[in-house]
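hi got a favour to ask and not much time before my train. below you get a single protein, a line of residues and a line of whole numbers that encode the local backbone shape. could you go over both lines and see whether the tokens make sense for that sequence. a few lines back from you is plenty, here it is:
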Amino acid sequence: MARKTKAEAEKTRLRIMKAALKLFVENGYERTTFADVAQHIGLTKGAVYWHFKSKPELLAELVVFMTERHTVQLTRTLSHPASLDSLEALTAYFVQRARLIVDSPANRRFFLMVRRLDWSSSKFVLVHQRIRNVSTMPYAIVFSALEGMRHTGVIRPDADLVTVSSVLMVLWLGLLEHEISHCLETDLEKALRLGFQAVLNSVKN
């Protein structure tokens, strides 16, 4: 049998990661085996082991791939966070960011996986910091934007930015998860805009 080219090997590696992501979300990380992943895409278990030595290594590579992919998507699609100098711009940014996740099956699955796994476990030490960065970045963007708007007088000087940022993130993440899980009984954009408006109006100058 001819040896696979580097491009073919990379394509197979990507198929394995996509299958693993789907199964980790549907069946759970602990219950998913390499045999399950192999069967899902018509490979042998040995072929999966050829690309990844262990399940933690597969998960680590998957997290790196998805976070880098999502960063590229954000850079190409959304406004730079430094330009979020109004309440409407901040709201629009998170509406668009939510749509970027919801409109992609892979992004939806990765969002659910990040939300559901206990990343503090020692078995996830290889990707703990990367997941922490992914999880805290939206909050940091909100806080920084609100801090800038407080300096320019858009919001009140006595506004509690930590609380406001936290409430906005709970709102955003909760609505996103409900939408992805098909539990949201209204339009996602409408719900996000209404929620952000209610919270931000409470601190507007």
